[in-house]
Amino acid sequence: MIKFTDDELKVVKKIEQLKDEAGSHAPSFFTFKQKLPEIDIKVDACFLSNPYATDLFIEYFNKEILHTGNIRDLLQSYPSQNGVIAEILADFLKIDSKRIFIGNGAIEIIQAVIHNFTKEKIIITIPTFSSYYEYVKDGIEVVYYNLAKENDYNLDADQYITFVKQHRPDTIVLINPNNPNGGYTKIADVQRIIEELSFVKNIIIDESFIHFAYESESYQLVSLSHLVEQHPNLIVLKSMSKDFGIAGIRAGYGVMRKEYVDTLLKNGYLWNSNGLAEYFFRLYTRTDFAYKYDKVRINYIIETLEFIHELQQIPMIKVYPSMANFVLIELADGIQSTDFVSKLLISYGIYVRTCDDKIGLKGQYIRLASRSKEENDYIIKSLKDCVNTQMKLAIANETVH
Ligand SMILES: *Cc1c(COP(=O)(O)O)cnc(C)c1O
Fold first, then answer.
1. Is Transferase one of the keywords UniProt gives this record (predicted)?
2. What's the pLDDT tens digit per position in 53-92?
């Protein structure tokens, strides 16, 4: 049990209310600042982004847009249409532009794909990113596939294949690495899943966190998007929000069969990007930027590995294995995740996400993002302090009884 003073309890109530209002997503940093000015948020470890990539983007943006006056064009002109931005990406990704669909954030693509192409039955692996089940239209059957806690919420490819064959859905979704636990399925296993499940009309693979995963010692990028050519039922989605640290811009893309891109473009989405997103996409495909980005990506992966290693040494919490830039943490018996989140926020100014609302999790969990080295050090120090205080309280309680 976490103890709060009466004053703190008032704040706890407000925090819980904000969370309720935000539904299945966490309240944003801005919402917190506006509605809870009494809390000084020092570290936002709720949002899952690479802060060094944000720095890199700002460096380019200042030099090329802000300080040159090009900002004016960017604001007053229409951005390019969906297909034009797709062409820019096509060369870089070595994928036919007709197979690329640009989204105002990946969330728009998730919505577009599920609303338009899921007709009967969808299998959703849980725990997951909530939009996948929230966007399913009425009348469509949702079947949940539970990732097993005993297996640290990792995907068992063979078991999954058997399950999907039994249920015969028209759509399946895998997030790799998965959100909220960071579990990673090797490319070879995902490939096997795709090959075994060729009867499924839509195989959605969400690679929003793939830039943090690796299979070689050199941390080389992995992706399945090039397989769309051989497997027309494959739909690979990618948000740019997390790995490039630019959620505010709203940029994502999907790689899918040409007919799907055609259908979507006939239904709207022509001008769904904005000038800033177009600038980002152009930057993303430039070799000078790509070279620098890869450096900050790898540096961040290495720091994240150290962060996870240090978290694993802290008592009373279980850190699940992760290949993403965050970890799922299970709290010891008797600690409520909402209390723990409030405590971290009130006493240390650290904002983390409760996972109470995540279906498929059994126990009390929080999700914690890796931030800059300095912020990570502060998080480790604060968590140790918080846990120590709890342990002392628990011991004191035992002596009383
Ligand atoms: C954050 C997230 C998205 C959506 O990202 P956008 O900001 O809309 O690009 C999609 N999928 C997963 C798994 C995510 O975590």
1. yes
2. 999 999 999 999 999 999 999 999 999 999 999 999 999 9
Together in a domain, 268 and 305: no
Q: Which two tokens stand for residue 163?
A: 């399950």
Ligand 1 centre from 208 Cα, in Å? 6
| Distance from Cα 242 to the centre of ligand 1, integer Å | 8
- Which atom of ligand 1 is nearest to 110's Cα? 10
Same domain, 295 and 281: no
Q: Is there a single domain that holds both residue 276 and residue 337?
A: no
Residues with CB under 6 A from ligand 1: 105-107, 129, 175, 179, 206, 208, 239, 241, 247, 252
Based on the domain organization, do 250 and 298 belong to the same domain?
no
Q: How far apart are CA 111 and CA 92, in angstroms?
A: 26
How many angstroms does the Cα of residue 206 sit away from the middle of ligand 1?
8
How do strand 353-354 and strand 234-239 relate by DSSP bridges? Answer: unpaired
Structural domain that includes position 132: 79-286
Report the CATH number that the domain containing residue 170 is assigned in CATH.
3.40.640.10
Class of residue 313 by CB neighbours under 10 A (exposed 0-12, middle 13-18, buried 19+)? exposed
pLDDT band at 17 (very low <50, low <70, confident <90, very high): confident
pTM above 0.85?
A: yes
